[in-house]
Amino acid sequence: MGITTEQLATLLHLKPQSLRAALCRDGHYFGLRPRKLPNGRLIWPDDAVKRLTTPQKQGAAQ
Q1: Which of 21, 48, 52, 56 has a CA 20 to 30 Å removed from the CA of 15?
Q2: To 5 degrees, how large is the angle CA 23–CA 27–CA 32?
Q3: Residue pair 12/49 in contact by the 8 Å Cβ criterion
Q4: Which portions of the chain are predicted below pLDDT 50?
Q5: Is 10 helix (H, G, I), strand (E, B) or coil?
Q6: How far apart are alpha carbons 43 and 4 in whole angstroms?
Q7: Where are the domains of the chain?
Q8: Sheet holding 42-44, edge to edge
Q9: Taking the CA atoms of the chain, what radius of gyration do you get in angstroms?
Q10: Contact 9, 49 (CB under 8 A)
């Protein structure tokens, strides 16, 4: 399913508008893109908090 903008903002200690503004400005919030529901609300991936708080491995140095 997914989590709402308000739920994600609470979990990340942000204001919901911060997520919406980043989405409007950049098209994503640190690489996360929500789905838009038929009623216009946004639904973020269930693992959004994990994706944002887990360090990403960097590619091999060239």
Answers
A1: 56
A2: 75
A3: yes
A4: none
A5: helix
A6: 5
A7: 3-52
A8: 3-4, 42-44, 35-36
A9: 13
A10: no
Cα 3 from chain centroid (whole Å): 10
CA distance 36 to 18: 17
Compute CA 21 distance to the chain's CA centroid, rounded to the nearest angstrom. Answer: 12
| Residues linked to residue 44 through DSSP beta bridges, in sequence order | 3
Q: What pLDDT, on a 0 to 100 scale, did the predictor assign at position 59?
A: 65
The pLDDT, as a whole number, for residue 55 is: 81
Q: Which residue has the tokens 């708080």?
A: 53
DSSP secondary structure letters along 15-56: -HHHHHHHHHHHSSBTTB-PEEPTTS-EEE-TTHHHHHHSPP
Q: Which residue has the tokens 């919030």?
A: 29
How many Å apart are CA 57 and CA 40, to the nearest integer? 34
